[in-house]
């Protein structure tokens, strides 16, 4: 089980980023041209990005543990980019593109589940799948709690941006 920690970390980071950014950060972005439709349009960008990412082929990297860890950690870079986008009032297209890219890069979630169970006995695969499913919940809860903290943070009071 010890050799599967990079996969567990990858799953936690993936869901942490998703639940941290949506809706906490994007909840402060408004676009007067589309009014209350903007959050739904961002959800559409999220869904299209996620679907596009999941349709990408799964490949086996030369060093899967390192690759999964690097990809998971690099997704954390989206957090300051979104926050800086809020601070410097980038246009609506900026958040559409970033939302799409965050979701597109979640393609590796499918790769994690595939690689983690590759070549395992069914009983061992079940244990690894259970661990990864638990990590989905850990990442989701961690992201949601951080999202709540960011939503209540001092920078959030004046963060609403409108175009």
From TrEMBL:
<feature type="transmembrane region" description="Helical">
    <location>
        <begin position="66"/>
        <end position="87"/>
    </location>
</feature>
<feature type="transmembrane region" description="Helical">
    <location>
        <begin position="94"/>
        <end position="116"/>
    </location>
</feature>
<protein>
    <submittedName>
        <fullName>Uncharacterized protein</fullName>
    </submittedName>
</protein>
<keyword id="KW-0813">Transport</keyword>
<keyword id="KW-1133">Transmembrane helix</keyword>
<feature type="transmembrane region" description="Helical">
    <location>
        <begin position="131"/>
        <end position="152"/>
    </location>
</feature>
<feature type="transmembrane region" description="Helical">
    <location>
        <begin position="7"/>
        <end position="29"/>
    </location>
</feature>
<dbReference type="InterPro" id="IPR002259">
    <property type="entry name" value="Eqnu_transpt"/>
</dbReference>
<comment type="similarity">
    <text>Belongs to the SLC29A/ENT transporter (TC 2.A.57) family.</text>
</comment>
<keyword id="KW-0472">Membrane</keyword>
<keyword id="KW-0812">Transmembrane</keyword>
């Amino acid at each position: 089980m010890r050799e599967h920690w990079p996969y567990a970390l990858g799953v936690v980071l993936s869901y942490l980023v998703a639940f941290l950014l949506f809706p906490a950060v994007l909840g402060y972005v408004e676009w007067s041209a589309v009014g209350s439709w903007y959050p739904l349009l961002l959800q559409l960008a999220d869904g299209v990005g996620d679907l596009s990412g999941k349709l990408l082929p799964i490949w086996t990297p030369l060093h899967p543990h390192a690759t999964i860890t690097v990809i998971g950690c690099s997704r954390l870079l989206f957090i300051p980019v979104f926050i800086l986008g809020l601070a410097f009032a980038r246009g609506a297209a900026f958040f559409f593109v970033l939302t799409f890219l965050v979701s597109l890069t979640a393609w590796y979630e499918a790769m994690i589940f595939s690689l983690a169970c590759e070549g395992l006995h069914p009983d061992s695969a079940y244990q690894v799948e259970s661990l990864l499913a638990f990590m989905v919940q850990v990442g989701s809860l961690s992201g949601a709690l951080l999202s709540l903290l960011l939503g209540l943070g001092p920078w959030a009071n004046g963060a609403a941006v409108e175009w």
